[in-house]
Amino acid sequence: MAREQATRKRDKLAATLNHCGDVLRGSLLERTTFHSSGCPKCSRGEGHPQWVLNVNYPGAKTRQLSLRPEQVPQVRKALQRYRKVKETLEAISELNQHLLQLQRDESKERKS
User: What distance in Å separates the CA atoms of residue 7 and residue 88, rounded to the nearest whole number?
Assistant: First the structure.
């Protein structure tokens, strides 16, 4: 791939990243919680369904955020946007590596 083509492709990808404010990293989990005593629903084994956003951090730390059912579609979309942003950043990084190689090779040719 030529330098100009790689630069155009990189800049086009970078332009898609201007709406990154509404992203979330993590996993959406559906859990069932049970009260230890006094709850008829839990006594029957039904429990209480609950949605949780689970986020892992370095050092084996985890944060879980309980969600209301009406928040689940919003969280799903934000998680999807995060994955798309991450894919785009990886593609930009690959193009930048290619551009560095081209720059190195051009520099070698000029010295020869």
Answer: 14
